[in-house]
Amino acid sequence: MRRLLLIAALACAPLPAAAHKVIAGVFPSGEAIEGELGFSNGDMAADTEVVVTGPDGTELGRTRTDADGFFTYVPTAPVAHSFHANLGAGHVAEVTMPAEDVARILGAAPAAAPAPAAPGEAPSPAGGALGAAEKQAIAEAVRDEVRPLRREIAAYREHNDLQSILGGIGYIVGLFGLGFYLAARRKLAG
Predict the structure, then answer these.
(1) Burial level of 185, CB count in 10 A (0-12/13-18/19+)?
(2) In Å, how far are 67, 131, 136, 149, 151 from 145, measured between CA atoms?
(3) What parts of the sequence cross the membrane (predicted)?
(4) Are 157 and 40 in contact (CB under 8 A)?
(5) What pLDDT is recorded for position 28?
(6) Quick check: is 169 in a domain?
(7) Is the pLDDT confidence value at 114 over 50?
(8) Quick check: is 83 in a domain?
(9) Which 3-state string (H, E, C) describes 143-173?
């Protein structure tokens, strides 16, 4: 009878949930802010509206994600930009780019008016004579290559977080404890 109760209790034990987390990230991309929205299981938020707000909560603009969950936004003021998106089913993505990063994109000081554009770009003395078009092409190529890596890293973190590892260790310890308990009962009964 006890074995039957033990088997029933093990059969009713809760299984680990296959939950996923929202992934949201923003980073400088030339003269724009590029970001991605999706879930840790690899599903990306396609064609989702993203609302951009300033530090005081005023709306600065809106943009939409593409089929791969990526979006771009061109900032106009060197203030912190917060990106908000409703991904449905209670999932809300929120990520902020600090004012310092936005200021670097605009070439201005944080919380100040944007600086006037430079009259022309001189080649760097150490880097050779790459023009603006070549630099832009290289930056786009690097971004395209890095996108899948970012997704894979986020998915890896989701599936191999500390809680999962400790849970697995707990299951193993529990099974050993159950085995020792049953062995001790057999020894006492025999």
Answers:
(1) exposed
(2) 17, 22, 14, 8, 11
(3) 165-184
(4) yes
(5) 86
(6) no
(7) no
(8) yes
(9) HHHHHHHHHHHHHHHHHCCHHHHHHHHHHHH
Q: How far is CA 107 from CA 73, 117, 123, 143, 147, in A?
A: 16, 8, 17, 21, 25
**One-letter amino acid of 85:** A
pLDDT in tens, 18-40: 456 788 888 888 788 988 888 87
Q: How far apart are CA 171 and CA 16, in angstroms?
A: 11
CATH code, domain carrying 79 = 2.60.40
Domain that holds residue 85: 22-111
The domain tally of the chain equals 1
Judge whether 100 and 48 are in contact, CB under 8 Å: no
Write the pLDDT tens digit of every residue in 52-90: 999 999 999 999 999 888 899 999 889 999 999 988 878
Q: What is the pLDDT of residue 112?
A: 45
Tell me, rounded to whole angstroms, the distance of Cα 137 from its chain centroid. Answer: 25
SS3 80: coil
Residue 166 located in a structural domain: no
Structure confidence at residue 155 (pLDDT): 63
For the chain, the C-alpha Rg in angstroms (whole number) is 26
